[in-house]
Write a structure and sequence with these properties.
It is built from 15 helices and 16 strands. It is of the alpha+beta class and 418 residues long. Helix 5 packs parallel to helix 9. It binds histidyl-adenosine monophosphate.
């Protein structure tokens, strides 16, 4: 029998306090901003039928060909841990017959079998929004701006936005053929993976990370130069809406993004501080995906942001010094019941309260209060019991005074300074 493994699997991460509080803080900032724009939270399963991803992310995409955690369950079903959020949201919208248009946001873990490095893990966390049923280019711009607002709220200042358009059903087939021909001429300079991409979907060659491929395609025709008039107009409107908001974007006419469902607008947030894995988030329009899932023709656009990278790029999010916690201290067994009651009463009043039941010594309880970074201790001893009061000790200043039973909740709250 081999030794049981006692370490976390490669490519995963533990968020222990205080980092867990940072992750939660970032998620909550996102929730607040998303709800401010009218998005409502959706929670979908962490695994789906494999087809959900193969048919949407794209059979030729790196995610589908190399990165999915796929398995057969005990009932022989082909399932996959979700590598991204968009396909599951589309599936859920249709399955639950949500009324369109609808604006949804999500927060959760995602899984990709990749080579772990700084900013790239096999389990990671994303937050994202999807606007389904909205066709206006002003929505694309609003979502792009929304992402920058999120990064700004977290103090990330070195984030640039790259924007592109990759055309639609009408103009892309002709462009794809032009690109295929052009890439065939330089086929011998492309890697083996790109040879396959060339057959399946030549646009995927733009995603290739191999330097020689990037050099070989330097002057390959870009999608933006082959847009139909409607796509051109859409793109111009996105860009002018960004300019109206004073958002400085970078045009990147090679930004096709690694997923097959996009049309028209694609965008990505890049941070200079992240090294090789420099994409904080990205998204785009996917006007055909709902239809491909068997739904009605439904324009859609969305974005997803990686939280591990966001935490790496954000200046240390200051944790509140004072944890808004009251520690109830009892001096002897005789006061333990009263201490228990008080903690329940404080909690019922919305005040976080904790007791160290195990330390019968007061010194041990004060140590526990310090370790928990409590703001104050509410002390009950025989004196307090006989007078019907509590002693309230402010742990920041060391000051202590008596408070009546009726006034204790307010007195504790007054010590919760931010
Ligand atoms: P994506 O570009 O594949 O887009 O992922 C979005 C973000 O998730 C990335 O920019 C990155 O921050 C983070 N991310 C991706 N893979 C990893 C990883 N292995 N480790 C750490 N972070 C990672 C999507 O997922 C699309 N669903 C976005 C979208 C929403 N498009 C339309 N709506």
């Amino acid at each position: 029998m081999s030794e049981p493994r006692r370490t976390r699997p490669k490519g995963t991460q533990d968020f222990v306090p205080p980092d867990s509080a940072r992750l939660l803080h970032v998620e909550n900032v996102f929730r607040r901003l998303a709800e401010r724009c009218g998005y409502q939270e959706i929670v979908t399963p962490t695994f789906e039928h494999t087809d959900v991803f193969v048919k949407s992310s794209g059979e030729g995409s790196d995610i589908v060909t190399k990165e999915m955690y796929s398995f057969k369950d005990r009932g022989e079903r082909d399932l996959t841990l979700r590598p991204e959020g968009t396909p599951g949201v589309v599936r859920a919208v249709l399955e639950n017959r949500l009324r369109l248009p609808c604006r949804l946001y999500y927060v959760g873990p995602y899984f990709r079998y990749c080579r772990p490095q700084k900013g790239r893990t096999r389990e990671f966390h994303q937050v994202g929004v999807e606007a389904l049923g909205e066709a206006s280019p002003l929505v694309d711009a609003e979502i792009i701006y929304f992402g920058t607002d999120f990064f700004r709220s977290l103090g990330i200042s070195d984030c640039t936005v790259q924007v592109n358009s990759i055309g639609c059903r009408d103009c892309r087939p002709a462009y794809r053929e032009t690109l295929r021909k052009s890439l065939f001429d330089r086929k011998e300079r492309l890697c083996a993976d790109c040879h396959v991409r060339l057959e399946r979907n030549p646009l995927r060659v733009f995603d290739c990370k191999v330097e020689s491929c990037q050099l070989a395609i330097q002057d390959a025709p870009a999608p933006r130069q082959h847009l139909c008039r409607a796509c051109e107009l859409h793109h111009e409107q996105v860009l002018s809406a960004l300019s109206r908001r004073g958002l400085l974007y970078e045009a990147n006419d090679r930004l096709v993004r690694g997923l097959d469902y996009y049309d028209r607008t694609t965008f990505e947030y890049i941070s200079a501080s992240l090294g090789a894995q420099d994409s904080l988030g990205g998204g785009g329009r996917y006007d055909y995906l709902v239809e491909e899932f068997g739904g009605p023709a439904t324009p859609a656009v969305g974005v997803a942001i990686g939280l591990e990278r966001t935490l790496l790029a954000a200046p240390a999010v200051p944790l509140p010094e004072n944890r808004h916690l009251a520690f109830v201290v009892w001096l002897s067994e005789a006061e333990l019941r009263a201490a228990e009651d008080l903690a329940d009463r404080l909690r019922a009043a919305g005040i976080p309260a904790q007791i160290d039941y195990d330390s019968s010594k007061v010194k041990g309880q004060f140590k526990s209060a310090d370790a928990a970074r409590a703001a104050c201790c509410v002390i009950i001893g025989p004196d307090e019991m006989s007078k019907g009061v509590y002693s309230l000790k402010d742990l920041a200043t060391g000051e202590q005074h008596e408070v009546s039973s009726d006034a204790v909740a307010e007195a504790v709250r007054a010590l919760f300074r931010d």
